[in-house]
Design brief:
With 210 residues, the protein is mostly helical. 54% of the residues lie in helices and 10% in strands. The longest helix has 28 residues, at 13-40.
């Protein structure tokens, strides 16, 4: 007596991969943008300027050093949202923008990690000497935190490039003007037309009645 094989459900590999990659990209992209924006508002470097009264402490935030990481983080976040509003070639292009935003954020943050231009300018203003430079210069870990945020954006972009074709897109009903397309209603029949009069007679109705 042979056993009857039980029916097997078809593997949902592509669907599961699409959902997993989508969740990972959303989490990575949103977290990366938030981390990069937060890091640029923190203190990146500190030092002193020599003035008449002695050493004057100076600090510089990430936004003082460079505005590139914050700007690219905003661009990356916008691209992450736009991925679901486009399809095919458009989705590929937006995914590339997302990945490039992440890579640019990483590069700008690492370059700013050792930059002293912002503090040199503050030292010149504090001392009244245009040639003055900052002394006792030191840097914090926040530039590297911003780089980690950019790396997360880059990961989201790479996931979108690789698996974006499996992700859902905005419904076509809402693509124009953000509102559902109105349904077409059938044109009202004109009771005075001859063919309508004959149809009324066939139904046993009096077309001349009120």
């Amino acid at each position: 007596m042979t056993a009857v094989p039980s029916p097997r459900s078809e593997p949902a590999g592509p669907s599961r991969t699409g959902r997993t990659s989508l969740a990972a990209a959303l989490l990575s992209g949103a977290l990366g943008a938030a981390v990069a924006l937060l890091a640029t508002r923190q203190e990146w470097s500190e030092g002193t300027a020599t003035v008449a009264g002695g050493a004057f402490p100076l600090t510089a935030k990430g936004s003082d050093v460079t505005g590139v990481p914050a700007a690219l983080a905003v661009v990356g976040l916008a691209a992450l949202v736009a991925v679901f509003a486009v399809r095919r070639a458009g989705r590929l292009a937006v995914s590339a923008v997302l990945a490039l935003s992440g890579a640019g954020t990483v590069a700008a943050a690492l370059l700013g990690a050792s930059d002293s231009t912002a503090l040199d300018e503050k030292a010149a203003q504090a001392s009244g000497d245009a040639s003055a430079t900052v002394g006792a210069l030191s840097h914090t870990a926040w530039p590297y935190v911003a780089a980690v945020g950019g790396l997360l954006l880059l990961v989201a972009g790479l996931l979108a490039l690789r698996y974006g074709r499996l992700w859902p897109a905005m419904s076509g009903r809402y693509e124009r003007g953000g509102a559902p397309r109105p349904r077409r209603t059938a044109a009202q029949a004109d009771p005075d037309r001859p063919e309508e009069l004959w149809k009324a007679l066939d139904r046993g109705e009096d077309p001349t009645g009120a």
